[in-house]
Description:
This protein is mostly beta strands. The protein has one domain. The protein is 10% helix and 34% strand. It has three helices and 13 strands. The strands form four sheets. Strands 3, 5, 8 and 9 form a four-stranded antiparallel β-sheet that branches. A four-stranded antiparallel β-sheet has the order 11-10-12-13. Strands 4-7-6 form a three-stranded antiparallel β-sheet, with no helix packed on it. The longest helix has 9 residues, at 71-79. The radius of gyration is 17 Å and the shape is globular.
Amino acid sequence: MIAPEVAHELGIKAEGPVFVSPVIREGHMCEECNEEFTPLIYQVGYIVESQHFHESNNGGGIYGCEYIETVRYDYIRNNGGFMGVLEAMGEPIKDSVTFSGGEWGASITRHLVRAQKTLVTGIRAFTGQTSLPYDEINEGYLVGISEKFSSEKFLFPRTRRQIGNNINAIRYSFKILESGEIFFGPPDIQEERQE
């Protein structure tokens, strides 16, 4: 999730937070044909089509996981963030992708699926507070957090309890409906009491 000012820097017109790929957050060049592609916007109920696609291994498209129990899911659950629920349009292609170690640690290979088009059926939010019995939330607040792998330009879901007295960090409130749609509002905390 990116803040509207970051969306503007990327050429995306936005009045509120925008859900984009966690990997493609800026322009990239295709390693196969050197064509540039930019971030895609994900919105519940809409079909997202890849700007760039090859059927060859690692040939672009919209990447996802067949099963939710993946490294990406573990990372989001442990650090907080949003995850799109996608349904491939047409037959997805199965790929093995190796992520280099870098700051993340040892290199790992993951089996992913990718498609040229997907339907966004929902968005899920995780607090990153795995000590909670259930770290997925349907409403809360969006805050800009400076951490090792992020900057204040990216917005993370948090509960009122996680925010504590740092209420100036709140940028928006959010609520995810049963339909999977997500709504944003002002950071109104008047009605809630900290436990």
